[in-house]
Amino acid sequence: MTNALQLSDPVSELRGIGPRYLKYLEKLGIKTIKDLLWYFPFRYEDFSQIKKINELQPEENFSIIGTVKKINVRKSYRRKIFIIEAIIEDNTGQITAIWFNQIYLLKNIPPGTTLSLSGKAKAKGKKLILSSPSYEIISRQKLGKTFYQEAVHTGRLIPIYSETKGLSSRALRYFIKPLLKLAQNIKDPLPDFLLKKHKLMGLQQSFHQIHFPSSLLLAKKAKERFIFESLLLSQLYLLKTKRKNALLSAPKIKLDIPLLQSFVRSLPFTLTEAQRKALWEISLNLEKKPMNRLLEGEVGSGKTILAIGSSLLTVKSGYQVALMAPTEILAKQHFNRFKSFLQPFQVKIALLTSSATKIYDDGLEGKISKQSLNKIISSADPIFPIIVIGTHALIQKNIRFNRLGLIIVDEQHRFGVKQRKQLIAENANKSEIPHLLSMTATPIPRTLALAFYGDLDLSILDELPEGRKKIITKVVLPRDREKVYNFIRQEINKKRQAFVICPRIEETEINDIKAKNLLTLSEQLNYEVKAVKKEYKKLTKEIFPDLKVAMLHGKMKPKEKEIIMSAFAKGYGGSSIDILVSTSVIEVGVDIPNASLMLIEGAEHFGLAQLHQFRGRIGRSHYQSYCFLFSGSPNHSITSRLRTLVKCSDGFRLAEMDLSLRGPGEFLGTKQSGIPDLVMSSLLDKEFIEKIHQQAKEIIQEDPSLKKWPLLLTSFQEFSQKIHHE
Ligand code: ADP
Ligand code: MG
After folding, report:
1. Residue 600 CA, ligand 1 centroid: distance in Å
2. What is the DSSP string of 131-193?
3. C-beta pairs of 82-91 under 8 Å, 24+ apart in sequence
4. Which DSSP string do the residues of 489-550 spell out, in sequence order?
5. Whose CA is closest to atom 10 on ligand 1?
6. Which protein residue has the closest C-alpha to ligand 1 atom 14?
7. Residue-wise over 598-608: b if at least 16 C-beta within 10 A, else e?
8. Interatomic CA distance for residues 334 and 621, integer angstroms
């Protein structure tokens, strides 16, 4: 490798990387030399104990160093493969190693070559053999001289990388090893005082130890260093953004107490204590400073009414509101609720999704074209304070609000960081940004919130409205399926309705699960993927031919979905639907009080927090509700995980359990994470996160421009750029 290589050069500059490897590397997200150097192993295989040949045991990992005594090839005629057989010896004995079809070995490792070999010894009759071991040349004779080489693939802690088809860890090691030389020229962005204070490993040593560690302890220290750096940059970013936002102002929304009082009085129920408190926090915030608030609340805790209240204050102050929901069904439901709760207040409300645009004004609802609606929203004159409720359609390029005062994002975890930012950025003026209220039913523990959002304001709804009955939850064994079906029929005869939820598992997800070793191979083979269609057919034809069963899935047209949803929402009898078979599209938000039964197929495929969300679709009235969890897996740890739902109905606790059982990546979903995988595992460590947060604060206090630490500044700028392009 020449020194002329730059970190920013494409990997194609490296020796041995041709078009084929380029394609594979790109699949792993590796384009530049820098990407490759920062592609860290996720675990290590320990081959560091070098054994003697006479110490080898069957089925044990081994590493030996030996010399090739003899090597030859024979052809197995029946199976048409070449078998390369080498006799390896050390001073304690001999052993046979075999490889298949790698004829070049004859030339590559001729007798006299000293090899380091790693793998598993297999018993063949009474003898042990080494079948396809990893090997590496340690020394060889050439022109009368001996050449030595350091082991990369054997006889040490071997890094294992996430691989892709055609690109093995072995190849990655081969490409990465020579880069460590290049890494010596990279300057450490972390200033000395930080390294000392937090006892962090220096950059160069860290590169070496994370890829080719001399011990697991040092590998861990190296990893910790990279995690520290990455989290420090993101905390600096969050703090700086906060400072910047503090300089901006947001529309001043009048704290109109009589208006709030008459709103609260107009409701058909009394607000819970938690709702009152949150509404007050929001109202104060809207008047005083730019709001960036997360409203966290248990499913069914009544977040929507707070969205409605804050929207009312905002439009009455002469500003517009945009509410973004993750699905059309939910947007439509919000539109209807806003209409009915705000009916006494003469407010204009619009619905904007990809399939429908509607407007509600003066108690009348009508269709409107997207263009006309857009004109109304964007026109400066006359100012038209309106609440626009929609889906992703709200962030289309041509939609511009003229006087946006408040953005509400419902089920915010369903949206990417980018989409949320876009909605804000596109509608900010030079000096004013809209207020932001994010709502979620997935409670995010404080440490995670801190890591992802920095110090954002929180309002928490930790109580449910009165009169809700506890949902009875059961994990159902396959032999009791029949009983459950009979029970469902009885309840439907009592005029209740049921949801049946099926996981829609894509091929890639199955591979993913396989890769993570969550299910054994035989479990996977036995596992039956319950597509909604199949379940629908079964239920209509065999189980409930006499009942009205309908289905709902993501591939249906919005119009079809809407027809089914509104039929289901009608309640019992007439043209309504008794059983709705659905994918997880109904997961979020939908409110159908008469539905009191839920059956979840393949429950093991969902996280606890998500199952709790599904379950939140029922138990919304005074009827006793039931949730049945079916699992396709007999695995004990899975059923016992599901059983926690039987006992626990506290969403916050379930979220924490989920987090520790499945890790933050799974918990938050890939969309949420702007944070690299490497860092994910550390997000559970409260003290670590707090420490970095504190450190970032001190740095910003000392020099917010970061000019004092030019290398840190450069890294920070790169980091911010990456975030903006995500
Ligand atoms: P979520 O927090 O899951 O979004 P919703 O806002 O959909 O919950 O509220 C669930 C149901 O509870 C709705 O039908 C809503 O009208 C009702 N509700 C909200 N607040 C109260 C309350 N204080 N008392 C009684 N019912 C309420
Ligand atoms: Mg909701």
Report:
1. 23
2. ES-EEEEEEEEETTEEEE---SSSSSEEEE---BTTB-HHHHHHHHTTHHHHHTTPPPSS-HH
3. 88/53, 88/64, 88/115, 88/117, 88/130, 89/53, 90/52, 90/53, 90/64, 90/65, 90/66, 91/52
4. HHHHHTT-EEEEE-----HHHHHHHHHTT-S-HHHHHHPPP--HHHHHHHIIIII-TTS-EE
5. 300
6. 591
7. bbbbbbbbbbb
8. 19
Q: Helices (H), strands (E): how many in the chain?
A: 26, 25
Q: Where are the beta strands (DSSP E) in 528-640?
A: 549-552, 579-582, 595-600, 626-630
Identify whether 385 is preceded by a cis peptide bond (ω within 30 of 0): no
Centroid of chain to Cα 647: 26
Give residues (CB < 6 A) around ligand 1. Answer: 269, 271-272, 275, 297, 299-305, 441, 465, 589, 591, 620
Residue of the nearest CA to atom 15 in ligand 1? 302
- Distance (angstroms) between ligand 2 centre and the Cα of 482 equals 33
Residue given tokens 């029929």 in the structure block: 489
Structural contact between residues 157 and 118, judged by C-beta atoms closer than 8 angstroms: no
Q: What DSSP element (H or E) covers 478?
A: none
pLDDT in tens, 452-496: 777 678 898 988 888 778 899 999 988 899 999 999 999 999 999
Query: 304: CA distance to ligand 2 center in Å?
Result: 6
The low-confidence residues of the chain, meaning pLDDT below 70, are: 1-3, 141-147, 380-383, 397, 413-431, 446, 455, 504-531, 554, 585-589, 662-678, 680-681, 723-726
- Joined together, the tokens standing for residue 183 give 């890494």
- The pTM score is 0.70
Alpha-carbon distances, residue 34 vs 37, 49, 122, 416, 676 (angstroms): 5, 32, 40, 26, 15
Mean pLDDT of the residues in the chain: 84
